[in-house]
Amino acid sequence: MQPNLKARNIALVREVQALPYVWPAPPDADAARRLRAGSCASKHALLAEELAAIGIASAPLFVAGRLVPHILADDPELAPGAHLPEVHECLTVITPWAGPLRVDVTWDPPLIGHGLPGTLDWNAESDMLLAIGEAGAGWSVPRNGLREAKEALRRRLYGPGERELRDRTLAALAKRFEEWRSGS
How many CB atoms within 10 Å of residue 48? Predict the structure, then answer.
């Protein structure tokens, strides 16, 4: 193992986690670089590329869990979509010092500060908390065909009209998160 590989890994995780969460956003690493913000998909795509550049492998990981964070489930604007699952995207990072670790950099520090699930000050020795809270099922998928696999999974999990409700709920969440960041 390179002497500072663990420290570089931690620094990259913190750097990508610091990018503001936004939705909607294109799901690719270039979009996160260009916007200096991203969704769960684009932030993890960026992190995967940055880790690969320093020699650390990762694999995409889908997990199903709550669309609406627990702390917001009773909010009247978000309650209609609170029952919906979310197909969340994060990473399994294969470290030479601790083996595979679950890494989730979705929520930026201000959102975690408001009570959303996340891990700040990660030490690269344990799994990070998931942005969707503790999850149900999880799926490993190859990078090639990632988007198609995620859409197939969504079609399986959402009933008629639920995808549209999910998108409206995510838009309302993103608006709320902007309000939290701006202090309004």
Answer: 21
Q: How high does pLDDT run on average in the chain?
A: 95
Query: Starting from the edge strand earliest in sequence, which strands make up the sheet with 99-103, in order?
Result: 99-103, 85-95, 57-66, 138-140
Task: Compute the distance between CA of residue 22 and CA of residue 5 in angstroms, rounded to an integer.
Answer: 29
The confidence score (pLDDT) of residue 16 equals 98
Tell me how far the alpha carbon of residue 77 is from its chain's centroid: 22
Which range marks the domain in which residue 139 is found?
Answer: 5-182
Beta bridge partners of 59: 92
Residue 139, pLDDT above cutoff 90: yes
What is the residue type of 79?
Answer: A
Q: What is the CATH number of the domain that holds 24?
A: 3.10.620
Q: What is the pTM of this model?
A: 0.95
